[in-house]
Amino acid sequence: MPDLELVAKAIAVYKKRWAIEEVHRQMKQSMRWENMRLGSYQGPKNLNALMALALFFIYMSKKYIAEFAVGFPKMINYKKEDLAIPKEFIYYRIAEVISECIKFIVQYKRKLCLAERIDQHQMKIRLM
Fold this sequence. Notes:
Blueprint: H1 3-30, H2 42-60, H3 65-71, H4 73-76, H5 91-108, H6 114-120
């Protein structure tokens, strides 16, 4: 095998490995896995199964990227001319959009406390 082909094959394998590493990194960061404290070994096993299911849902949501971009353009960070060419690894952004949607669902199914109701209408100014 010529050296050029060997180098090209090594780069292709490394790209695949990098994609796998990205999946695991996203799983840890998006789901805040490192912040959780569990008492038994069965807990992390169950948690990993649920996280894999959630990631599957996120990865399957990539086909709806155009709809996400219309609803959440700043989170997806797409321009109109980019909609035909989806970015390769956009799963962090999709996870952020889905998380925001779930926050809306949770927010509207519960009653806000007094501080939250007052705080909604007040302008927040930070002095540094």
